[in-house]
Protein backbone atom coordinates (compact mmCIF):
# COMPACT_ATOMS: atom_id res chain seq x y z
CA UNK A 1 0.00 0.00 0.00
CA UNK A 2 1.37 3.42 -0.92
CA UNK A 3 -0.10 5.26 2.08
CA UNK A 4 1.97 6.01 5.17
CA UNK A 5 -0.16 3.94 7.52
CA UNK A 6 -0.61 0.20 7.51
CA UNK A 7 -3.90 -1.62 7.90
CA UNK A 8 -2.64 -3.35 11.05
CA UNK A 9 -1.95 0.02 12.68
CA UNK A 10 -5.64 1.00 12.54
CA UNK A 11 -8.27 0.14 15.13
CA UNK A 12 -10.72 -2.49 13.97
CA UNK A 13 -13.51 0.09 13.78
CA UNK A 14 -11.43 2.27 11.48
CA UNK A 15 -10.52 -0.69 9.27
CA UNK A 16 -14.16 -1.74 8.95
CA UNK A 17 -15.26 1.83 8.20
CA UNK A 18 -12.61 2.19 5.50
CA UNK A 19 -13.59 -1.15 3.99
CA UNK A 20 -17.21 0.01 3.83
CA UNK A 21 -16.11 3.30 2.28
CA UNK A 22 -14.06 1.43 -0.32
CA UNK A 23 -17.13 -0.62 -1.30
CA UNK A 24 -19.26 2.49 -1.70
CA UNK A 25 -16.61 4.17 -3.82
CA UNK A 26 -16.20 1.03 -5.92
CA UNK A 27 -19.94 1.09 -6.65
CA UNK A 28 -19.87 4.80 -7.49
CA UNK A 29 -16.90 4.49 -9.86
CA UNK A 30 -17.60 1.05 -11.31
CA UNK A 31 -16.31 0.88 -14.87
CA UNK A 32 -14.11 3.93 -14.37
CA UNK A 33 -11.54 2.92 -11.75
CA UNK A 34 -10.41 -0.40 -10.37
CA UNK A 35 -10.16 -1.43 -6.74
CA UNK A 36 -6.44 -0.67 -6.49
CA UNK A 37 -6.86 2.96 -7.56
CA UNK A 38 -9.85 3.44 -5.27
CA UNK A 39 -8.05 1.96 -2.26
CA UNK A 40 -4.97 4.08 -2.93
CA UNK A 41 -6.98 7.28 -3.10
CA UNK A 42 -9.01 6.36 -0.02
CA UNK A 43 -6.01 5.54 2.15
CA UNK A 44 -3.89 8.49 1.03
CA UNK A 45 -6.90 10.72 1.73
CA UNK A 46 -7.11 9.16 5.20
CA UNK A 47 -3.46 10.02 5.78
CA UNK A 48 -4.08 13.66 4.82
CA UNK A 49 -6.38 14.09 7.83
CA UNK A 50 -4.91 11.62 10.31
CA UNK A 51 -2.42 14.10 11.78
CA UNK A 52 -5.05 16.78 12.41
CA UNK A 53 -8.08 14.80 13.50
CA UNK A 54 -9.81 16.09 16.60
CA UNK A 55 -12.35 13.27 16.51
CA UNK A 56 -10.66 10.17 15.02
CA UNK A 57 -14.04 8.45 14.75
CA UNK A 58 -14.86 10.70 11.77
CA UNK A 59 -11.62 10.09 9.89
CA UNK A 60 -12.97 7.35 7.58
CA UNK A 61 -15.91 9.57 6.61
CA UNK A 62 -13.64 12.53 5.83
CA UNK A 63 -11.34 10.23 3.88
CA UNK A 64 -14.26 8.87 1.86
CA UNK A 65 -15.63 12.32 1.05
CA UNK A 66 -12.24 13.63 -0.01
CA UNK A 67 -11.38 10.49 -1.98
CA UNK A 68 -14.71 10.78 -3.81
CA UNK A 69 -13.86 14.34 -4.85
CA UNK A 70 -10.35 13.33 -5.91
CA UNK A 71 -11.66 10.41 -7.97
CA UNK A 72 -14.18 12.68 -9.69
CA UNK A 73 -11.28 15.01 -10.46
CA UNK A 74 -9.13 12.19 -11.82
CA UNK A 75 -12.01 11.02 -14.00
CA UNK A 76 -12.32 14.54 -15.37
CA UNK A 77 -8.59 14.70 -16.10
CA UNK A 78 -8.83 11.39 -17.93
CA UNK A 79 -11.66 12.64 -20.14
CA UNK A 80 -14.76 11.49 -18.25
CA UNK A 81 -16.83 14.61 -17.66
CA UNK A 82 -20.31 15.99 -18.19
CA UNK A 83 -19.28 19.37 -19.59
CA UNK A 84 -20.02 21.40 -16.47
CA UNK A 85 -17.29 23.91 -15.55
CA UNK A 86 -15.32 23.27 -12.36
CA UNK A 87 -14.20 26.16 -10.16
CA UNK A 88 -11.65 25.61 -7.39
CA UNK A 89 -11.44 28.13 -4.53
CA UNK A 90 -8.13 28.16 -2.67
CA UNK A 91 -6.99 30.02 0.44
CA UNK A 92 -4.59 29.32 3.30
CA UNK A 93 -6.69 27.42 5.84
CA UNK A 94 -9.75 26.47 3.77
CA UNK A 95 -11.72 27.57 6.81
CA UNK A 96 -13.07 31.00 5.85
CA UNK A 97 -12.78 32.77 2.50
CA UNK A 98 -12.71 29.71 0.25
CA UNK A 99 -15.51 28.04 2.19
CA UNK A 100 -17.72 31.12 1.97
CA UNK A 101 -16.98 31.44 -1.76
CA UNK A 102 -17.87 27.78 -2.26
CA UNK A 103 -21.10 28.26 -0.31
CA UNK A 104 -22.19 31.18 -2.50
CA UNK A 105 -21.08 29.38 -5.65
CA UNK A 106 -23.02 26.20 -4.94
CA UNK A 107 -26.10 28.13 -3.81
CA UNK A 108 -26.10 30.27 -6.98
CA UNK A 109 -24.87 27.81 -9.62
CA UNK A 110 -26.92 24.82 -8.48
CA UNK A 111 -26.22 21.80 -10.66
CA UNK A 112 -25.00 23.94 -13.58
CA UNK A 113 -21.39 23.95 -12.36
CA UNK A 114 -19.12 22.18 -9.87
CA UNK A 115 -17.33 23.96 -7.03
CA UNK A 116 -14.45 22.70 -4.88
CA UNK A 117 -12.23 24.30 -2.26
CA UNK A 118 -8.88 23.68 -0.57
CA UNK A 119 -6.13 25.20 1.55
CA UNK A 120 -2.34 25.39 1.54
CA UNK A 121 -2.25 24.80 5.32
CA UNK A 122 -5.73 23.45 5.91
CA UNK A 123 -7.23 23.98 9.35
CA UNK A 124 -8.93 21.55 11.70
CA UNK A 125 -12.41 23.06 11.31
CA UNK A 126 -14.33 25.71 9.41
CA UNK A 127 -14.28 29.12 11.12
CA UNK A 128 -17.41 29.24 13.35
CA UNK A 129 -17.82 32.99 12.79
CA UNK A 130 -17.68 32.45 9.03
CA UNK A 131 -20.35 29.76 9.36
CA UNK A 132 -22.52 32.12 11.40
CA UNK A 133 -22.13 34.95 8.91
CA UNK A 134 -23.20 32.67 6.06
CA UNK A 135 -26.12 31.29 8.08
CA UNK A 136 -27.42 34.86 8.35
CA UNK A 137 -28.02 34.64 4.59
CA UNK A 138 -29.51 31.18 4.73
CA UNK A 139 -26.41 29.36 3.48
CA UNK A 140 -25.21 26.42 5.58
CA UNK A 141 -21.50 25.64 5.29
CA UNK A 142 -21.36 23.69 8.56
CA UNK A 143 -21.13 20.34 6.77
CA UNK A 144 -17.98 21.38 4.92
CA UNK A 145 -14.51 20.57 6.21
CA UNK A 146 -11.06 22.04 5.57
CA UNK A 147 -9.02 20.02 3.12
CA UNK A 148 -5.84 20.29 1.06
CA UNK A 149 -5.66 20.36 -2.69
CA UNK A 150 -4.11 17.61 -4.76
CA UNK A 151 -2.61 17.45 -8.22
CA UNK A 152 -5.66 15.91 -9.88
CA UNK A 153 -8.04 18.41 -8.26
CA UNK A 154 -6.11 21.40 -9.59
CA UNK A 155 -5.66 19.81 -13.00
CA UNK A 156 -9.39 19.10 -13.27
CA UNK A 157 -10.46 22.67 -12.50
CA UNK A 158 -11.34 25.07 -15.30
CA UNK A 159 -10.90 28.13 -13.08
CA UNK A 160 -8.70 28.42 -9.97
CA UNK A 161 -9.57 31.29 -7.63
CA UNK A 162 -6.80 32.08 -5.13
CA UNK A 163 -7.35 34.08 -1.95
CA UNK A 164 -4.22 34.86 0.01
CA UNK A 165 -2.23 31.65 -0.37
CA UNK A 166 0.51 33.45 -2.33
CA UNK A 167 3.39 31.37 -3.61
CA UNK A 168 1.91 28.26 -2.00
CA UNK A 169 -0.93 28.23 -4.52
CA UNK A 170 -0.31 25.73 -7.33
CA UNK A 171 0.36 27.13 -10.79
CA UNK A 172 -0.29 25.08 -13.92
CA UNK A 173 0.49 26.54 -17.36
CA UNK A 174 -2.55 27.27 -19.48
CA UNK A 175 -5.04 27.20 -16.61
CA UNK A 176 -7.21 30.20 -15.85
CA UNK A 177 -6.40 31.86 -12.52
CA UNK A 178 -8.14 34.63 -10.62
CA UNK A 179 -6.58 36.23 -7.55
CA UNK A 180 -9.07 37.76 -5.13
CA UNK A 181 -7.48 40.14 -2.61
CA UNK A 182 -9.63 39.69 0.48
CA UNK A 183 -9.04 40.12 4.20
CA UNK A 184 -8.56 36.91 6.14
CA UNK A 185 -11.58 36.33 8.44
CA UNK A 186 -9.48 34.29 10.90
CA UNK A 187 -9.86 35.70 14.41
CA UNK A 188 -12.50 38.22 13.34
CA UNK A 189 -16.00 38.63 14.76
CA UNK A 190 -19.14 37.98 12.74
CA UNK A 191 -19.63 41.74 12.47
CA UNK A 192 -16.16 42.16 10.99
CA UNK A 193 -16.62 39.21 8.63
CA UNK A 194 -19.82 40.52 7.05
CA UNK A 195 -18.08 42.99 4.67
CA UNK A 196 -15.70 40.21 3.57
CA UNK A 197 -18.64 37.87 3.06
CA UNK A 198 -20.55 40.43 1.01
CA UNK A 199 -17.52 41.16 -1.20
CA UNK A 200 -17.12 37.42 -1.80
CA UNK A 201 -20.76 37.19 -2.87
CA UNK A 202 -20.27 40.04 -5.37
CA UNK A 203 -17.21 38.35 -6.82
CA UNK A 204 -18.87 34.95 -7.07
CA UNK A 205 -21.79 36.48 -8.93
CA UNK A 206 -19.45 38.24 -11.33
CA UNK A 207 -17.60 34.98 -11.91
CA UNK A 208 -20.84 33.17 -12.66
CA UNK A 209 -21.81 35.88 -15.12
CA UNK A 210 -18.40 35.60 -16.77
CA UNK A 211 -18.88 31.83 -17.07
CA UNK A 212 -22.37 32.49 -18.52
CA UNK A 213 -24.01 30.53 -15.71
CA UNK A 214 -27.33 32.08 -14.62
CA UNK A 215 -27.15 32.70 -10.88
CA UNK A 216 -30.09 31.63 -8.79
CA UNK A 217 -31.37 34.28 -6.42
CA UNK A 218 -29.83 33.88 -2.98
CA UNK A 219 -30.88 35.43 0.33
CA UNK A 220 -27.81 37.66 0.21
CA UNK A 221 -27.20 41.02 -1.30
CA UNK A 222 -27.78 41.61 -4.99
CA UNK A 223 -24.85 41.88 -7.36
CA UNK A 224 -23.83 45.39 -8.25
TrEMBL record:
InterPro entries linked: Phosphatase-like_N (IPR048716), Ptyr_pPase (IPR023485)
Broad class of enzyme this protein falls into: oxidoreductase
A molecular-function term among this protein's GO annotations: arsenate reductase (thioredoxin) activity
Domain Phosphotyrosine protein phosphatase I as annotated: residue spans: 85-210
Enzyme Commission (EC) number: 1.20.4.4
Keyword match Repressor: no
Protein name: Arsenate reductase ArsC
Organism: Nonomuraea harbinensis
Classification lineage: Bacteria, Bacillati, Actinomycetota, Actinomycetes, Streptosporangiales
Amino acid sequence: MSSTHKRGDLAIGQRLALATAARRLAEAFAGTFGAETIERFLHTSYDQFAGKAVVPHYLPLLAERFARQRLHALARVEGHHDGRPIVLFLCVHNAGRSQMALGFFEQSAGDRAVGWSGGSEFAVEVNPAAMESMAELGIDISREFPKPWTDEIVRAADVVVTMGCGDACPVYPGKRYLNWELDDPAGKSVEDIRPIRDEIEHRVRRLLADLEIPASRTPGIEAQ
